[in-house]
Amino acid sequence: MSTIEDLQNIEEYQQNVYINHARGESLMEKYGIPIQHYEFDYVAKAKDAEELEKMTLVLRSGQEGYFPDLLRAIEDKLQRLKPESKLLKYSTPVLRKQDLLQNDRNEINQDLRQWVTDMSKNSRELDKRKTNKIQCDVKIRQTELQHKPVTVTTPKSTTRIASTDFQAWDRYDPDAELLKQELEEEKMKIEAKKAEKASEKLRKEAEQFVYAGTSSQSCFVMAGLDRKPKKSVSFNQHSTETEAAYLSDRELEKGREFYVAGDYELALKCFTQSILSKPQVININNRALTHLKLGHFKEALEDTNKVLALDEGNLKANLRKAQALEGLKEYENALIQVERVIKTDPDNDIAQELASKLRKVCKNTFQSKNTKMRVFDVI
Amino acid sequence: MENLAKPQIICHNQKSLDYAIHDVKWIPCSAKFVAIGGKSNGAGIVETYQLSADGIEKLDEFCKKDHFKCCTFEASSLRNRHLATGDFSGRLQLWDLEDTLTPVYKTTVHTAVINSIDGVAGQSANCGAPEIVTGSRDGCVMVWDVRQKDIPVAKFTPLEGQAGRDCWCVAFGNSYNDTERIVAAGYDNGDVKLFDLKTMSVRWTKCLKNGIVDLQFDRKDIPMNKLVATTLESKFFCFDVRTQHPKKGFAHLIENAHASTIWQVKHLPQNREIFMTTGGGGSLCLWKYTYPPKRVEKDSEGIQYGIMGELHQIQNSGLSDQPITAFDWCVDKLGLAVCSAYDQTLRVLITTKLNLC
What we know:
The complex is a heterodimer.
Chain A: H1 3-23, H2 27-31, H3 40-45, H4 49-61, H5 68-81, E1 92-93, E2 95-96, H6 102-128, E3 150-151, H7 166-171, H8 174-215, E4 220-222, E5 233-235, H9 241-261, H10 264-277, H11 281-294, H12 297-310, H13 315-327, H14 331-344, H15 349-369
Antiparallel strand pairs in A: 4-5
Helix pairs in contact in A: 4-5, 8-10, 9-10, 10-11, 11-12, 11-13, 12-13, 13-14, 14-15
Chain B: H1 2-5, E1 9-16, E2 20-26, E3 32-38, E4 44-51, E5 56-64, E6 68-72, E7 83-87, E8 92-95, E9 105-107, E10 114-120, E11 131-136, E12 141-144, E13 154-157, E14 167-173, E15 182-187, E16 191-196, E17 201-207, E18 212-217, E19 226-231, E20 235-245, E21 249-256, E22 262-268, E23 271-279, E24 283-290, E25 296-298, E26 304-306, E27 310-318, E28 324-329, E29 336-341, E30 345-351
Antiparallel strand pairs in B: 1-30, 2-3, 3-4, 4-5, 6-7, 7-8, 8-9, 10-11, 11-12, 12-13, 14-15, 15-16, 16-17, 18-19, 19-20, 20-21, 22-23, 23-24, 24-27, 25-26, 28-29, 29-30
């Protein structure tokens, strides 16, 4: 930075000082950090990120003067101690294509070109099947809105009794009011319980949906959730491949989000929907994992078998199959399965862990069954 | 090192136009998008652009009488892809982009400009009838079904005899089956209201003390999960709308950003925990929400209440020096987005490494 700019900065900061002093307490007084701490040696040894943050704020405010080097030192230290600090978030300009490395630029362009070609193909397919009709089996919403529009602003009904209005206070019965309040609270509790139950019901329904989906043929789609497994099915829901793939992808994304957030039942429902739209290795594999999480080992096994039928070497499916078998207590089969995984991917931690666990279990059951037989470790 | 792992926002292409752009939207399942707005002579314009690896090229345009303010594709099926628009005189129109002489559907019930429009259930199955919601300066929020002419299927109006507050934004949510559906509306006085369409009642209302510029549920077709509302003065609110406590309401957190009006909030279609906010200073902020270890706790009376997680800013970029007033993620391609600012420029953005965070 040039000296002139420095001088200007100092001047600005000094003006700031006046303004802030007029308001009273400076930041430094507010935080109560002793002046001795504003020093390079102290900063180098500092361990308290919060104090450093405060010091940054004090120095940035300019109330104490202009110390660019010290500020930089503190910020560097803060970067090391607490890289996620909000004070270190700077706005960076959006990158232009020219700023990128040649390689990255080519990669992005290539990727985009491919996507544009694929998309245009899909789009043309959709355009060909244009109907201009709205197909929907859900009825138009019926409300008696002509008679009773819902008002946005609710009128205030509670009027406060003025402290001087003695007549009104005479009429006021504290016991009745208390009772009223209690009743209201009671009502609130019931409402809350209802909401709780509703959300639980939602989960249960989601889970049931899955069983309905897995038991029926994959081209059948259950029409509604709240209806019991009545055979009201819509056949061949998507007339174009693009639509099926689109819906499948959307449901897959939704399922993943639910899975990450820990809502496994809802995730399961989404994956099932996705599979119903278009069975793919990725969505069946994801459903297998969710089944495992929920402890539905039989379903998980079914799903992994489906994936393996499509793609024999699928590592994840093989591993999940082993886990499912373990859950079903078929330890020997699980061991064989997991060793198959280890053969192709020896560095897989989960597989190794599972294998060592299974070996132990297998050994034990072996010994208990045939006590007289000598057991050799299988390596 | 840190920079390499962080998502980067890249301006892939930009194009200056000769009119005020009010909204931009990707056409689903294609590499095309529309830009709508109004010319200086008062005419409204809709333009269709095609994205290619080298740039963007204009395919088509049509002009109508009034400025178009907002648009959406989300209430029409993939095979139709009709564009629903709201304009300055309060008309809601539905356009077939290949035959734009007359609209497929139109209503003129709103008496003032339609500020905001949203659609639901056009492209997804098992989540109810396709509907459009419009919020207008006349203070009304109306829900439309394209199969019913002239009359809205639901209407939320101010009290009779009162001038309504200007409704700035509307959004659908909670549409996880055929019956449930909620409309969120934000007003110029800072009110946020949730209207339950199943019971036709106001589910929840809260005043955030500052005009609500935009709001959005993280997803429309799931049991409602999160709601983000942005305000005039550099604050935005993130609500966990999963659990509602009868007294405390919804848990929320407040974040400061952009140091100016936050014009837009748009959740990433591929990951609902990530969203972009756009600011009046032309900046873009990318956020990621992380859930707390336990989302629901019970208070002393055994009633559930929600607990907020944390918001992390994963990118903060300056794009323009004018407010970015429209932004849209592409549903079909992770990280691809288009936005427009008051400097009358269209920009196609690519955000990298979104799958890693």
